[in-house]
Structure formats: C-alpha cells, structure tokens
C-alpha cells in the first residue's frame, strides 16, 4: 500500500467533492420543495390530484435510482427539445440534478406528509378560525411546525442522498468518487485512492449521522 | 346576530344535530350546556363552519354560513373562537400568536398590531409574558392568550368551546374572570361550558341540549331553580351531586 500520491492529488479530489456537494445541496433544496408540493397534493381532498401524487411517489419509489439517472441523461434533452422546439445542450450535471430532484422528491414527500400529519388538527382549526386561507395556514402554522419535527428525518435522507450522488459515475460526471477513481488509475494506486475515498465518505456520513442523532435527542425533550 | 334555522348534521348514521333552532342577539351571552355527546361542541363549531352542516341554515351577522358563495375566511375573521385545548401556535411567541392574523389576514401594520396585542395582553393580565412561548405558560395563561388572540381580530362574536374543561381546577377562575369582563364589555358570546357558576352569574340565557336537540332554554335563575325538562333536571342533579 502506498498512499504517497494522495496529498498531491488533493486539489483535483477537492474539485470532485465540490461537484458532489453542489449536486447535493441543489438536489436537497429541489427535492424538499417538490416533495412538499407532492405531500400537499397527496393530502388534498381532490381525488385526482392526490391520486396523481400517489402514483408519482409509488412509481419513483419502485424503480432504481441508477435507472432514473441514466434514463434522464437521455430524456431531459429530448423533453426540453420537445418543449422549446430547439436543441438545447443540458449537460450531464443538469440532467443528473433533475433526476435526483424528481427521485428524492418521492422520498421527501413521505417524510413531509408524515410531518404534517403529526401536527394536531387543532392547529389548522385555530388557523382557520381566525380567517386564514388554506395556503396561509400551511405556510404560517403547519409547515413551520412540521419541518421542525421532520428535521432529523430530512437530514437522514440527505445523508443517504450524499452517498447516492456517487451514482453520477454512470453518466461520466466527475464527482468525488469518480475523481478518486480516475486519479488512482492515473497514479497506479487504484486501491489506495478508493480506500481513501471510502474513508472520506465514511467520516462525513457517520459524523453527520451522529450529529443528527444528537439533534434528535435535543428536539425530543 | 346568530340564527340557527332547523339545522341538521349527521356523522354517518349518527344524527348529531337534530333540528337546532336558536337565536343569539347582539350583546347577548348564551351558555350552552348538556351531557357529553349531546352535540353542543359540534353545534358551536358549525357557527364558523369548522364543522359543516347537512341541512338548514345558520346566519351570522346577516350572512348564511352554509352558502358556498359566502366568503368563509372573511366571516371567520369576524368570529372569535376559543378552543378547549387552546391551540396556541407553539412555534411562535405569545406576542406573535396574537399579531399573526391581524397582520396576515387583515393587513394591519406590525407596529399597530404589536401595540394592540400588548393592550390585549394587559387586559387578560399577561403583558409580562409577551415574549414567552406557549409551552412556558400554564394552561390558564395559555387560554387567556388564546382569548386575546381571538379578540385581536376585533370580532363581533366570540365563541367558546369548553374553554375551561382542559384546565386544572385552580386555573379555571382566572379564565372565567376574563370571560366575565368580556361579557360585561358588551361582547356577544356563545359559550359551551359545564361551569354552572359562570352560567348563573354571567349568562343572559342558558340553552340545554340533549341528543342534538335543544330541549330547554331559559334565563339562568329560572333554569337552575326550576328546570322543566326531565333530562335537564337529571343533568343538574348530576352536576351538583356527582357521587349520588
């Protein structure tokens, strides 16, 4: 084992990590936003709306993420072409981001739905009783409380997503894992670079997970 | 101010409201009592349509609440509602609990809303708690904040749904006192409660409801001294001597 080439390679590994984190942050933001909309749709009294949202969630929860990533890599340019009528080059990053947002939204939807359902019915009644509309009641009363309760679960899901971003390898994006793999091949130290990458994923994920557990304990009091 | 015309409501097979006819005049304080499961809470919740009705009409301040054309949000803004379990917003401070709807629903500016909220808190004796959060308050204090929150919308009617049932006995008095002050200020009030002392002292009229029907209504002295209906007599006996 010879780890000597890792330190000189850190700048290029950091470039990969930057892409991983960028993808993660945008996917989480988009996924939670879309997931919240889906959750509200799923709980809607409109049967068609809730049926559509339910079908969406069940569909994306039943297919592999890798499939969605590779499929969207082909589909997103086509769909954009179909909508705008001209050929748009979107690139692997954008198509991956769309894939993650749409896929993760299905999971975030279920978390948000459980969070909203955990808020007592009295809260929405209190909001209605002072004349708030549905959207005011959700925005001002229900969602702020629900998100507080959901934070640990949302963070756990985000840690899983952090690991899953490495699947962009399939469409050739240079994320942290792919950077480590490529660099290791060039340096002739494939094993060492993968071991190092594994250690980095472990430290970040396990560290974040422990923090979430502590947060959960604090919120529970 | 409030008028029920032959109101019916069913929960599946259960006929919870069975032809309610009732009028509450402006400035009047009406206490609604009855055994549990009699439909009294459901009835008061139909006034601002937290519960819908299946048949009949309810008029509040000249508007038919069951009419789909009625702007429910505007109507609810004029009708204060105090819940058994307070339902304060736990993520907001006492002050924000009170100012939220004047700002968001009525479009009041924040400075004016704050000033009004502090005045209301003084009225319920809790001005020193304005920065506290609901979880830091006792039940009685939470309920007084909830009353202030209702009043912040400057309602024309206040509805109380068992406002003291969830309170420890030593806290009931402070809430009833606030309600009594409010009644004396001329507020139109409909109060579902088992507090017969409050009914005797403050109410203009006591309405007794059983199996979704109003079976008796009378001024309090008459109701307590000489209840006509057998169910009302039984109810009062049980309230006065629960162990017998």
Automatic annotation (TrEMBL), chain B:
<dbReference type="InterPro" id="IPR030679">
    <property type="entry name" value="ABC_ATPase_HisP-typ"/>
</dbReference>
<protein>
    <submittedName>
        <fullName>Polar amino acid ABC transporter ATP-binding protein</fullName>
    </submittedName>
</protein>
<keyword id="KW-0547">Nucleotide-binding</keyword>
<dbReference type="InterPro" id="IPR027417">
    <property type="entry name" value="P-loop_NTPase"/>
</dbReference>
<dbReference type="Pfam" id="PF00005">
    <property type="entry name" value="ABC_tran"/>
</dbReference>
<dbReference type="InterPro" id="IPR003439">
    <property type="entry name" value="ABC_transporter-like_ATP-bd"/>
</dbReference>
<keyword id="KW-0813">Transport</keyword>
<keyword id="KW-0472">Membrane</keyword>
<dbReference type="InterPro" id="IPR003593">
    <property type="entry name" value="AAA+_ATPase"/>
</dbReference>
<dbReference type="InterPro" id="IPR050086">
    <property type="entry name" value="MetN_ABC_transporter-like"/>
</dbReference>
<dbReference type="GO" id="GO:0005524">
    <property type="term" value="F:ATP binding"/>
</dbReference>
<comment type="similarity">
    <text>Belongs to the ABC transporter superfamily.</text>
</comment>
<keyword id="KW-0067">ATP-binding</keyword>
<feature type="domain" description="ABC transporter">
    <location>
        <begin position="2"/>
        <end position="236"/>
    </location>
</feature>
<dbReference type="InterPro" id="IPR017871">
    <property type="entry name" value="ABC_transporter-like_CS"/>
</dbReference>
<keyword id="KW-1003">Cell membrane</keyword>
